[in-house]
Write a structure and sequence with these properties.
mainly alpha; Farnesyl Diphosphate Synthase; 65% helix; 0% strand
């Protein structure tokens, strides 16, 4: 995804009494948890957090980027397994109080401050292993949901705890918004994934529209592809609506970053619909003005 945050670097909005605006950092902007779920919204949403929580989010997404790079890298499958296994060991060291890696050292304070759960970090690695072990092609709906749970929802559970919301409603935000954003990213990245020999469109939806092959390039050339994508858009919208309900059940102050993430990613989904499914290499992104509007709206909201 093309990074656009630097276009608005001079903006100096103060979202809250203990929050500050950071100038965009190209290292941060490159961070992307699985299926590029962070991308350009990272800078915008994190401006609504106090500095210490924002630092924890940077550490989380640096971890996500590290393991994502392994899964998407050029190493052999066996080497990818070894590297991801090493990260499992590093998470164990982190929770034993002996982190070795710069990334886990950056997380060590956050896991105690915000009650971050070891199982969530391991679930993210599980998701990376799904991609590292084989090229995913037309998974079942159950397999796709398991993938979303590991690569997006687990990161969401960590994120909402960092935001300051560990309630059941906060966990529901992670579950629903994680799935919605993951589905949006899948729809955005169809062409890129096909070049990696991957196809995340669920087989039941493909079969419902008469597509029974799993070769990515062939599937993307089928006349029924828009109908398949339309069904997945409907599923994403269902999860966005459920996420909005869950956000409304949480304290407004803690869930402001989640509200920005929902708004920007839902706008991206609508931009994809407007572009259509025949020009898949044409980049689509939520407009920068839309992200800024969301930040100002939620930043000016009272406690």
């Amino acid at each position: 995804m093309t990074i656009v945050e630097h276009l608005c670097a001079p903006i100096s909005v103060r979202p809250g009494p203990d929050a500050t605006i950071d100038a965009p950092d190209t290292r941060e902007n490159a961070i992307a948890p699985r299926r590029r779920a962070v991308g350009s919204w990272f800078f915008w949403a994190m401006q609504l957090l106090p500095a210490q929580r924002r630092k924890a989010m940077r550490a989380l997404y640096t971890f996500c980027r590290e393991v994502d790079d392994i899964a998407d890298g050029e190493a052999s499958r066996s080497l990818k397994q070894i590297l991801l296994s090493n990260w499992r060991s590093e998470i164990a060291h982190l929770y034993a109080g002996r982190p070795h890696h710069n990334v886990t050292r950056g997380l060590s304070e956050a896991i105690h401050l915000y009650g971050l759960q070891c199982d969530d970090f391991l679930a993210i690695i599980d998701g990376m292993e799904m991609d590292a072990q084989t090229d995913i092609r037309a998974p079942s709906l159950a397999q796709l949901d398991r993938y979303c749970e590991r690569v997006a929802v687990a990161a969401g559970r960590i994120s909402v705890r960092i935001f300051g919301e560990a309630s059941p409603a906060g966990q529901r935000v992670a579950a629903e918004l994680g799935r919605a954003m993951q589905l949006t990213s899948i729809l955005r990245d169809l062409a890129e994934d096909a070049r990696r020999h991957r196809l995340y469109l669920p087989r039941e939806v493909l079969h419902a529209h008469g597509i029974f092959a799993t070769t990515p390039s062939w599937v993307l050339a089928q006349p029924a592809l828009p109908d398949v994508c339309s069904d997945l858009v409907g599923l994403a919208e269902y999860h966005y609506a459920a996420a909005a309900e869950a956000i409304a059940a949480c304290p407004r102050w803690t869930m402001r970053p989640a509200a920005v993430l929902l708004g920007t990613n839902r706008a991206l989904l609508h931009e994809l619909l407007a572009r259509g499914w025949r020009r898949l290499d044409e980049p689509v992104r939520a407009p920068a003005w839309h992200k800024l509007t969301l930040v100002i709206r939620h930043g000016l909201a009272g406690r």
